[in-house]
Amino acid sequence: MSVGHFLEHMKPQLIEWRRKLHQHPELGFMEYETTAFIAKQLEDLGFKIYIGKDALKSESRYGVPACEELKKQEQSAKAAGVPDHLMNLMKGGHTGLAALWDTEREGKHSAFRFDIDALPIEEAESEVHLPFKHSFSSQRKGVMHACGHDGHTSIGLGLAHYIFENHKHLNGTFTLLFQPAEEGGRGAKAMTDKGWLKEADHFYSGHIGIQQLPVGTIAASTRGFLASSKLNATFKGQSSHAGMKPEDGRNALLAAATAATQLYTIPRHSEGVSRVNVGKLAAGNGRNIISDKGYLELETRGETQAINQFMQQQAKRIIQSAADMHNVEALVEFVGETEEMVCDESLISSIQSACKESLFVQRVEPSAQVSGSEDASFMINEVQSHGGQATYMLFGTPLPANHHAPLFDFDEGVLTTALETYIQIVKGGHSVA
């Protein structure tokens, strides 16, 4: 089957997968149903599947949810029909999977990463929102695929189908990594540390959107992803009656609020981009109680590892100073990180050449400027550390709302464009002569 016929056949399937996944979003390290869905697809194709501790290094995971939360989601997944043998492998937040296809013909080893987690966001209920209008909105209150990972997962499944259907005409080895917990920089290191990329010659990943580009336009590489650190700060004080004995209280709410505002006073760095953000503040017991607890979730970012380290050190100093000011204790927990990354420019021309005769890829930009963070950086840096080549691409689509917003969505035509990009890369590097 030609690439064109394959893509036309696959187009409705990509949309169907995307919409099914969109209806059933799961947060990082709790993607039990998602992992089981992917596993079933790939096992049916004949891929060798690795799940649970066989797929990632347990102790390298960051920010694993509390046991009570994991158990609740595990019970929900079992009720939804996830088989016991898979639940036993994934128990305790060991989600995601690695899939391997060896053509048994000499050739390169190419690895691809697709992130699978959702976000703690309440999806919009509005007729202008395509998922709501067409009845495939999230069925989980407060959880939403608001960054396109449902699309990424569908693209990865499409690539797996292409490899299966064309493996007799391909050489080398393919590793597909369906990664949990990208949000917050928590999952990629665990997969990287498991060793999947130690022998990879090439590594490819990418993202739907990020920039507003027409469907059919892709960027073969990116510049600007920042190193980042994800921190949780817990303040512990002493509660007391706010009217009768306020002097006996030690106010953790004020400590948390002080830290939240003063973190933004960290000076910007002269050597490059720097960022800080407090994304969550929770504190208090009641209006007549001196609060004994406060909690922050925050992040720092930097153009380089050194700049981010500066931001992180300053953040910790301010958190401790706020605690000292209000005579409370502070505990800072490190729950995620990303590294800086530099895409291999040598892959730009090969992607442009591979996509020259594409049906759905109309334009290949050499590079796109971005400003977020990506834990695929661990994978890229691992491949490059032993002489391999790696890149992170963008797949163009109009964006009706920002990433991580209740109205986020994308033009589903981008699914076919992205899949063809990966297919053309595979054809260009693995076709049997």
What features would you describe in this structure?
- The protein is α/β, with parallel strands linked by helices and 433 residues long.
- The chain folds into 2 domains: 310 residues, Zn peptidases (Aminopeptidase, 3-Layer(aba) Sandwich); 112 residues, Alpha-Beta Plaits, CATH 3.30.70.360.
- The chain is 35% helix and 23% strand.
- It has 12 helices and 16 strands.
- The strands form 4 sheets. It has an 8-stranded mixed β-sheet with strand order 1-2-4-3-5-16-6-14.
- Helix 1 packs antiparallel against helix 6, helix 2 runs parallel beside helix 6 and helix 10 packs across helix 12.
- The protein is globular.
- The chain starts with a helix and ends with a helix.
